Amino acid sequence: MTENSGENRLILYFARHGATAWIAHLDNMRLFERAFNRAGWPIAWTEDAFNPRPILVFGLPVGVGIETRRDPVEVTLKNRIDVEPMILCLNRSFPQGIEIVHWEEAPNTKRSLMSLVKAADYRIEAPMIGPAYSLTFGGGRRVVVPWTRKGKTREIDISSRIFETYNIDNDSIEFKGGAGSDLHLRIDLLLDALVCDGKLSPEDALGARIVRKRVHCDFMS
Question: Considering the entire predicted model, what is its pTM?
Answer without folding.
Answer: 0.90
